[in-house]
């Protein structure tokens, strides 16, 4: 049950605009990755540029 609640409340994908090779984020914006696991494990991040 807790995993279903976390999945509903947190994002699993993100779209960020890129302008002139830089992330187009606002002054106070940032990208944070939060892990909900206690034990260490490997994670893959997939970046798709169109």
Task: Describe this entry's structure for a reader.
This protein has 50 residues and is α+β, with helices and mostly antiparallel strands. It has one domain (1-50). Helices cover 16% and strands 8% of the residues. It contains 1 helix and 2 strands. The protein has one helix spanning 2-9; strands spanning 18-19, 22-23. The chain has a two-stranded antiparallel ribbon with strand order 1-2. Strand 1 (18-19) and strand 2 form a beta hairpin. The N and C termini lie far apart (36 Å).
- Poorly predicted regions are none
Query: Largest beta sheet: what is the strand line-up?
Result: 1-2
Shape: elongated
Relative strand content = 5-15%
Q: For the CA atoms, what is the radius of gyration?
A: 14 Å
User: How many distinct domains?
Assistant: 1
Mean pLDDT across all amino acids: 82
> Would you list the SSEs in sequence order as H and E?
HEE
**What's the oligomerization state?**
single chain
Question: How far apart are the first and last residues' alpha carbons, in Å?
Answer: 36 Å
Which features does this protein show?
50 residues, alpha+beta, 1 helix, 16% helix, elongated
Structure in a nutshell:
With 50 residues, the chain is of the alpha+beta class. The chain has one helix spanning 2-9; strands at 18-19, 22-23. The longest helix is centred in the first third of the chain and has 8 residues, at 2-9.
SSE layout:
Blueprint: H1 2-9, E1 18-19, E2 22-23
Antiparallel strand pairs: 1-2
